[in-house]
Amino acid sequence: MAARDGRGLVPLLAFLGVAAYSLSMAVVTPALPQIQAGLGTTAAGAAWALTAMTLSAAVATPLVGRLGDLYGPRRVLLAVLAAATAGMVVAASAGSLPVMLAGRVLSGVGAGVFPLAYTIIRDVVPAGRTASAVGLMSSMLGLGGALSWCMAGPIIDLLGWRWLLWVPVLGLVPGTVAAWWIVPRSPSRKGARVDWWGAVLFAGWLVAALAALTQGTFWGWTSPGVLGLLAASAVTAAVWLRVETRVREPLVDPRVMRLRGVWTANAASLLSGYALMAGGLLFPLLVQLPEDTGYGFGGSATQAAVLQLPASIGMTVAGVVAGTLDRRIGSRAVLFGGAALTGAGYAFVTVAHSELWHLYVGGIARGVGLGLAYAAVATLVVLAVPAGETGAATGVNTLIRTVGASLGTQVSAVIVAGVPGERGFTAGFALSAAAMAAVLPLALLAARGRGAGGAPERPPSAADAREERDPVPDGSLPAADRP
């Protein structure tokens, strides 16, 4: 009965779970120098603390989403939260780099909270409120980043870098208990099977591709290692696609990925992920460059973090209001507006970055725009696919955003290193503006639905049935969703 009575708290639990995982992912970025010194490793070794979790998350996200579709999101969510918590404990207490990396790999399984949360929201939230719930959950990505930058300096100075890794545990442990108590059970599909061959092949080509992207800067983009990884990825991906078109229940159904509402949203996610992490590298780097370069600001790491804070808050707020906008103008218009605002922010700093306020203006526009865009693409995917494919489809969308983020970091680093002086930053900002300009036609191509606000219609869920039985004319929560 606890799960049924607490049904109205389920979306809140999903939001908090996603925020805790986002914090665990982002929290090592400001602590990389301290991790390097504390574990006695190199800068490249410390960077693997982030890379290891990214690779693990990329593989786990669509697989966990598929498992949630087949066996019910509750039991899979509990396993994912337990694995992520254990991984964070191992990483926080690690005395060597290999142990740290093992913990981070295990923590990466927690990325599965994204597609599971979307599935849970679709199950318990009525269709008219789905966009609001999805937008709020998407905003948790910005909240996790904002919290990590706010906490990093004081925690490192007062308690040490390891406590940055313990903080997410303080959110994951009660989150796991609350999930066990609140999230409703759902039946498994009869005769459901996991496409394990597809999962292995998928992991193979994806890890090879992401490893090439993340190590290209260190090994050289034309090195045998990078070229070999890219070739192995291409061959394995071809085999994987062939397998997925032939099995009865594929890990990722190619037919679903070809839906207009899905492929346009996925392409927009790739470009938006690029724009997010390109700015995450370019803005702090420009702030911390010495003033004698003629274009740097000579700022500290704290000043660079403060610069990121308004953008992260703007991204969070934009995700919250995106659902309201979706009901009024539709997800396509929200995506278009978010892409235009993000592109305008980057275009502004392309031509004006000589004063710190220029970076604040461009950064806030970037954050608010990406908050709207992320919420819109998630809603487009959730409403475009059958209910039984929600976890897998949103898992792939989250994965593609991760790939775009990796591209944003690596490509921007190459541009700044290869184009001398201020022109490198100008080129990096301009390329990010162009990436968001490419999202505009994708927004126009996205499927036009028949539901309210232009959202595609979908089969009624259990939440819709509850609202049908207990309508509330004044617009407040239906009885089943009230605390």
TrEMBL record:
Q: Membrane-spanning residues where?
A: 43-64, 76-95, 101-121, 133-156, 162-182, 194-213, 219-241, 262-287, 307-326, 333-352, 364-387, 399-419, 425-447
Origin: domain of life: Bacteria
Residue ranges of the region described as Disordered:
450-483
Q: Which residues form the Major facilitator superfamily (MFS) profile domain?
A: 10-450
InterPro entries, alphabetized: MFS, MFS_dom, MFS_trans_sf
Organism whose genome encodes this protein: Actinomadura algeriensis
Name this polypeptide is given: MFS family permease
Cellular location of this protein? Cell membrane
Q: Which Pfam families match?
A: MFS_1
Q: Which PANTHER family does UniProt cross-reference here?
A: BLR6921 PROTEIN (PTHR42718:SF46), MAJOR FACILITATOR SUPERFAMILY MULTIDRUG TRANSPORTER MFSC (PTHR42718)
